[in-house]
Amino acid sequence: MIAQRITLVGAPVELGAGLPGCAMGPAALRIAGLKAALVALGHDVEDYGDAVATPVGNISLRGAARNAENVIGWTRILEEAAHHILKNGRLPVFMGGDHALAMGTVAGAARHAHDEGRPLCVLWLDAHADFNTPMTSESGNMHGMPVAFYCGEPGFEGILPAERPIVDPGNVFMVGIRSVDAVERELLAARGIHVFDMRAVDEFGVAAIMQRILAQVGRLNAMLHVSLDVDFLDPSIAPGVGTTVSGGANLREAHLIMEMLCESGLTTSMDLGELNPFLDDRGRSARLLVDLAASLFGRSVLDKAASLCVMQGFQNVA
Fold first, then answer.
1. Is there a catalytic annotation at residue 43?
2. Does the annotation mark 143 as catalytic?
C-alpha cells in the first residue's frame, strides 16, 4: 500500500436536507477517530478544520430550492477547497454534512481533472439517485440535487461559472440505489448514467459490479471521486441518517467495495455524507464510516495474496 497525503475537511452542511443535525457530522467523525485511524495506516493526514460558508443572496433559482442561498455558499467554498487541495497533490476527504456538499466537492474535483487533462469518474454510493433539479424536485431539498448539478443539468445557472467543467453522465456509477423519483428515472436513462440498484447487487454481487466499474475508470485513465452517503448502508447497521431506506448494503458488501477501491489505487477524492449524529445510536454510524474509510485506505485482516494462499491451501487439502 502506498502512503497517501490526505486532507480532512469538515463540511457542516445541513440546510440541504429536510432534517437538522448533519452539521454535527464532522465533529462525530473526529470523535470516532477518523484521523487516528488513517495515521495508524501510515498516511500523512492533516485536518483542515471545518470550512466556513457565507450565504449568497444574489441568485434566484427557478423552481423549488429550499435554503438555496446557504447551499450556494457551501457549493462555492467546497468547490474551491477541493480544487486547491487536489492541485497541491493531496487527497481530500470531506466530512459531512448533508449530501448537498457534493455539489461543491465534485465540481472542484472536476475542475482539477480538467486542468490535468483527465476525465473525472464518480462512484455514487447512495440509496438515492440525487438527480433532481429545482424544476423537478417535489421537496425542494437540495441534498437531492448534487448529481444533476455536477452533470450540468439546467436550473442551476449562476451558482458557479457557466464554463465550469462538468462530469460526463456516462462517467457516473451509482451503486445501492433503491429510491428514485419518477422524473429522476427518466433523466437517468436519458443521460446514460450507470445505475446498479440493490437488485443488481443481489443478482450479480458487489465484486462483479466493482470490477466492471474499476476497469472502466482504469481504461479512461480517470480520476475517481467516491461519494459515500450513510443511507447507502442498511439502517440496521447505520441508523444515523435522516433518509433511511430499508434493504441497503450490509457490512461485508460495504467493506468489500472499500477494499476493492484500495486495491485499485484509483481513488483521488472522497465524501462521507449525510451523517446525522442526532439520529444515531451511540455513535454506531460514525464509527462504521471511520471503519469503511480505513478499509479504503488500507486496513485489512489479511492482504489479498495471503488470503489467496489460504484458499489455495484449503483447496489442496480438499
1. no
2. yes
DSSP letter for each residue of 260-303: HHHHHT-EEEEEEE---GGGSSTTHHHHHHHHHHHHHTT--SS-
Stretches where the chain sits below pLDDT 50 are none
Catalytic residue among 43, 83, 112, 128: 128
Q: Determine whether 263 is an active site residue.
A: no
Residue type, 7: T
Residue tagged active-site, from 153, 168, 184, 231: 231
Q: Please state the pTM of the whole predicted model.
A: 0.95
Active site residue 231: yes
From 221, 286, 301, 251, select the one nearest 34 (Cα to Cα): 286
Residue ranges and CATH numbers for the domains of the chain are 5-317 (3.40.800.10)
Q: Is 274 a catalytic residue?
A: yes
Let me know: does 20 contact 278? Beta carbons within 8 Å: yes
- Is 153 a catalytic site residue? no
- pLDDT of 318 reads 55
